[in-house]
Amino acid sequence: MFEQEQIPEAHRGKWFLGCGILGVAVAGTLTWLMIQNAVPTSLALALWPTSIAAIGDPHTFTEKLFTAVITFGGQFALYGMAGLLVGSGINAIRVFLSRR
Description:
Elements: H1 12-35, H2 41-47, H3 61-98
């Protein structure tokens, strides 16, 4: 009698994971380009803001590992949250358009 409308699925976890992986790929690429002196520091900081954590110049293995976790993990989280916002916005638009 009353049919339920199908609401598009959000897939928010996929947006977070996919964009987080993209963020780590960007960080890895920027690391390689900065070693080659092929990218200005200001551009690298704009695309990889958590790399500022590496400014302390760690010396021991533990410090280097901790710095890598902070810089790359923070990049994953930042890009993942941006992807989550984009995915939620796209889902809101899809839901809005499906109810019209």
